[in-house]
Specification:
mainly beta; Methylamine Dehydrogenase, Chain H; five-stranded antiparallel beta sheet; 4 helices; 32 strands; binds 2-acetamido-2-deoxy-beta-D-glucopyranose
């Protein structure tokens, strides 16, 4: 078993080395092969140098994937500044051709502790890692070269608290997780015995959204790695939970499969409920699933205070973040283009606080929340509008629309290919 898996990993590593070669000539045709593209002119570069942090997402284009970086100002507002090639290719799941190409949260992930950004290249089965320039957080320098993802169609990333371990989940025909050490000069190096299969009957590119892989995270105490998988109705999906060895960071050979409480169907993003050993997962089928792991992780239907919360009128609630400032969770729906604010009380009971419309048809997908000064700000990729919506989270139930950032215009001016169907991911970094 172990031998088979590691030889698959090796062949994937080799394959990615081979496919990396023709990249330059292919991307050269659409002039999108420059490794860095400045956006927004001199004012943007000045803003980037005085930024308190940055927001990142990926273009996920098949002809060449870029990490797009916008400076975060001291007022929480964004200024588009720079795009950096991942030296890899994006992809799009089947059979649809709309926004949310990868069916996931976490396609790009920043770590303040590590001073790094990691991004998936779903079309070349690789992961790229970058160092964040300490003087200009929109300026990324690739560390080493992209590495094989340990499977096919890598779609989501998690970084541990220390910022020195990156794990990915692959959602294609060869699916499952794989983890890497972060070496600040060599880049990502595979960690032995972390390539673990999800045993899904999938294709490359993945077929979805039903039955596809959604997200990967570390548990709050970093002792477990958790991947979410949407169900194939009427069969519910699951959270797959592996134990991480404290001695060598290897993963348990098999995962424990935990299905959502009754009614849950399509677990998507996962956000830790701090201090509770519990997870809030969005559920594209109804709203939100609460997974209570305080009594330990046991295979089967989620136990304890696990529950589900329906969001009336929802279409597909798929992405989530938590605000320390308001103490509430914020989830986005690609169909209704609404942000829903959710409170989870001490007994893990979720309730809807309020909703914020972001414009019909904008298709709000990935989001992240950053603390700037004494406020929290929410950054929402409105993929279909090729925009980012910025909300100021002053107090519970009182989010305010702060800014709409256009991506398409500045990208076109810079010669960077972006499209509503492929844009994916949202992650933030704030300087210490
Ligand atoms: C971009 O592509 C052109 C044409 O293929 C090539 O001459 C140039 O060296 C490439 N630049 C980079 C940075 O790869
Ligand atoms: C895998 O999925 C394909 C397509 O739905 C199906 O034809 C095939 O029977 C499935 N294989 C297994 C082993 O379930
Ligand atoms: C957005 O769509 C909803 C549901 O179809 C509808 O009730 C609402 O009036 C629409 N809002 C706008 C501004 O068009
Ligand atoms: C995207 O926008 C187009 C119109 O520009 C609309 O027809 C389509 O329904 C939108 N898609 C989503 C997922 O919102």
């Amino acid at each position: 078993m172990q031998l088979t898996i590691s030889s698959v990993f090796l062949s994937v590593l080799l394959a990615s080395t081979v496919t990396a070669a023709p990249l330059h000539s292919r991307t050269g045709k659409n002039k999108a092969n420059k490794s860095k593209m400045m956006m927004g002119g001199n004012a943007a570069q000045t803003a980037a140098k005085s930024a308190v942090g940055a927001a990142y997402w990926i273009t996920n284009e098949g002809a060449g994937n870029f990490v797009v970086a916008a400076a975060i100002g001291s007022d929480g507002k964004l200024t588009l500044s720079q795009a950096t090639s991942t030296e890899g290719q994006g992809s799009h799941g089947a059979p649809g051709d709309g926004p949310d190409a990868l069916f996931t949260q976490g396609a790009v992930k920043a770590s303040a502790a590590g001073g790094i950004v990691a991004a998936v290249n779903a079309g070349s089965n690789t992961i790229s890692v970058f160092n964040i320039d300490s003087t200009n957080p929109t300026n990324l320098e690739m560390i080493g070269k992209p590495v094989g993802s340990g499977g096919e169609f890598p779609v989501s990333l998690a970084i541990n608290k220390a910022g020195n371990m990156v794990c990915t989940v692959n959602g294609g025909a060869i699916n499952g997780v794989a983890c890497f050490n972060v070496d600040k000069t060599k880049g990502l190096t595979p960690i032995a015995n972390t390539v673990r299969s999800l045993k899904l009957n999938q294709t490359t590119p993945a077929n979805g959204p039903a039955g596809s892989v959604s997200h990967v995270i570390f548990s709050e105490d970093n002792t477990q790695l958790i991947a979410s998988v949407k169900g194939l109705p009427p069969t519910p999906g699951m959270l797959a939970v592996w134990d991480i060895s404290s001695s060598d960071n290897s993963l348990s050979a098999d995962f424990k499969a935990v299905q959502p409480a009754k009614g849950g169907l399509l677990p998507f993003s996962m956000t830790v409920i701090e201090g509770k050993n519990a997870i809030l997962a969005t559920d594209a089928g109804l709203g939100v699933d609460i997974f209570d792991f305080s009594g330990g992780v046991t295979a089967g239907t989620a136990a304890g205070k696990s529950s589900t919360l329906g969001i009336t009128g929802q279409g597909a609630t798929c992405w989530s973040s938590f605000s320390s400032k308001t103490g509430n969770f914020y989830v986005t729906d690609i169909d209704t283009s609404q942000v829903t604010e959710i409170n989870v009380d001490d007994n893990l009971k979720p309730t809807i606080v309020t909703q914020y419309a972001q414009g019909n048809g904008t298709a709000t997908i990935d989001n992240d929340i950053a603390a700037v000064g004494s406020n929290d700000f929410m950054y929402v990729l409105a993929a279909n509008a090729t925009e980012v919506k910025v909300l100021s989270l002053n107090a519970p139930g009182k989010a305010q629309a702060l800014q709409t950032l256009d991506i398409a215009g500045p990208a076109k001016a810079a010669g960077l290919t972006v499209s509503a169907a492929n844009l994916q991911g949202m992650t933030t970094f704030i300087k210490k």
